Hints:
The chain is of the alpha+beta class. The protein has two domains: about 1-30; about 40-170, CATH 3.30.1330.60. About 50% of the residues lie in helices and about 15% in strands. It contains five helices and five strands. It has helices spanning about 1-30, 40-50, 75-90, 110-130, 155-160, and strands at about 50-55, 55-65, 100, 140, 165-170. Strand 3 (about 100), helix 4 and strand 4 (about 140) form a beta-alpha-beta unit. Helix 3 packs across helix 4. The relative contact order is 0.17.
Amino acid sequence: MMRSFAVNQLLTPIRLIIATAVAILLAACQTMPAPTGFTPAQVAVLKAEGFVEKDTGWELTFNERLLFAVNESAIQPEQEARIARLASNLQSVGITSARIEGHSDSTGTAAYNLALSQARAQAVAAPMQANGMRFTPDQIVGRGEALPLSSNDTAEGRQDNRRVVVIVTPQ
C-alpha cells in the first residue's frame, strides 16, 4: 500500500507535465494560420495556361499581338474563345476569381490611355464572367501607361505595353 502511494505521488507530476504539454500543443494547433497557396492541381493548370509566378501572384499576360490593335479594346472571336477556355480551366480547379489589369502604350494623353486600358481589362473580363468567373469592380483595373514592360520609344516596345494581365492569388 505504501509503495502504491509513492508511485502515485511520482506519477502525478508526470501526468501534470503531459497534460500541460497536450494543452500547449492543442492551443498551438488552434492558432496556426490556415494554409495558403495553390494546390498542386491548381499550379499545374496555371502553368499549362502560361501563368508565371510573380511577387504579386500568378500572372498571365495577353500582349497586343494576341488581343488588341492600336487604339482598340475589342477582342477577336478566337481570342474570346481562348479566354472562355481559360476561365473554364481555372474554375475546374477551384480558381473562381482574378484581377484583370489593362495597360496601354504612351501614345495619346494619359487620360485617354487610362480609359483605353480600362476598356481592355473589361474586354478580357467579359468572356471570363460569361463563363462563370466572378469579379468585384476593383478587380478590373486600367493602369494606363503607368507600368510599361518595354520602352515606348519603339513600335515593338509600344506593342509590348498594350496588354492585359490576369493575376490570380490564392483565395
